[in-house]
Amino acid sequence: MRASTPTADEGFREVNLLDVYPRMKRNLAERAEWKARTPENRLIAKQFGLEYFDGTRAQGYGGYRYDGRWKAVARRMIDHDGLTGAESILDIGCAKGFFLHDFRELLPGVRVAGIDVSRYALDHAMEDVKPFLQQGNATHLPFPDRSFDVVISINVVHNLPDALCRQAIREMERVGRRHKYLQVDSFRNEQERINLEQWQLTAELIYSTDHWKQLLAEEGYTGDVYWTITE
Ligand SMILES: C[S@@+](CC[C@H](N)C(=O)[O-])C[C@H]1O[C@@H](n2cnc3c(N)ncnc32)[C@H](O)[C@@H]1O
């Protein structure tokens, strides 16, 4: 274990590729909904079934529907990584495949793959990407070493306990060749920590950004990383 605070020299870079994703600040009405996020509702959410995606806001998204919001993020990633369409992209925790759908629209020729634990999300995925999605766990990716040019995992690995989260990060490293983008729930101060505790439904890990940086350095992560902060 490294004692010092990790730096960019140790392999990963902090870069927010979701800065173009609309509306990250929670409004007051939403804050009122947090009270309904009881331990019972959290248990249901953690099954990642119908209730989590298309049930109530107390148990999840309250309707996980395609609205094109991810397209700006895909375009941002294409520009940032200099993607041309000749690449292969893996989305870990792809849910209904919205992000991969957008990559396919923006980058003709790109090869995509998605993996998710949720049978429900995969059964309700967008039709054009369904053939490229499979059920599986971020901790055991069913792909050979260095299979993908781009490996993405957004808001997934904090749902695992520490040891399994670390394993999932090592799996990203193993199957990736060039670009990686990881995003996790986190906080930078006490208020953001309280917000995160109240808002989150499925997280096993409530870690500060410094804690995550230490963990990523310890696991040898070499991609880009950013945080989902509940402001
Ligand atoms: C918060 S959602 C994020 C979905 C998508 N990445 C996005 O940003 O919209 C978390 C997703 O991770 C999936 N998931 C949770 N634990 C997982 C695991 N251990 N392996 C693979 N997928 C997982 C859930 O089913 C769900 O689709």
General description of the model:
The protein is an alpha/beta fold. The chain has a single domain, classed as 3-Layer(aba) Sandwich (Rossmann fold). 33% of the residues lie in helices and 17% in strands. The chain contains 9 helices and 7 strands; from the N terminus they run βααααβαβαββαβααβ. A 7-stranded parallel sheet has the order 1-7-6-5-2-3-4. α7 links the parallel β5 and β6. It is globular and about 45 Å long. It starts with 12 loop residues before the first strand and ends with a strand. The chain binds S-adenosylmethionine (SAM).
- The total of helices stands at 9
Order of helices and strands: EHHHHEHEHEEHEHHE
Number of strands: 7
Named CATH topology = Rossmann fold
CATH homology superfamily name = Vaccinia Virus protein VP39
Helix % is 25-40%
Give the number of domains: 1
Question: How large is the share of residues in beta strands?
Answer: 15-25%
In CATH, the architecture is: 3-Layer(aba) Sandwich
What tags apply to this protein structure?
Rossmann fold, alpha/beta, single chain, disordered N terminus, globular, 231 residues, binds S-adenosylmethionine, 7-stranded parallel beta sheet, 7 strands
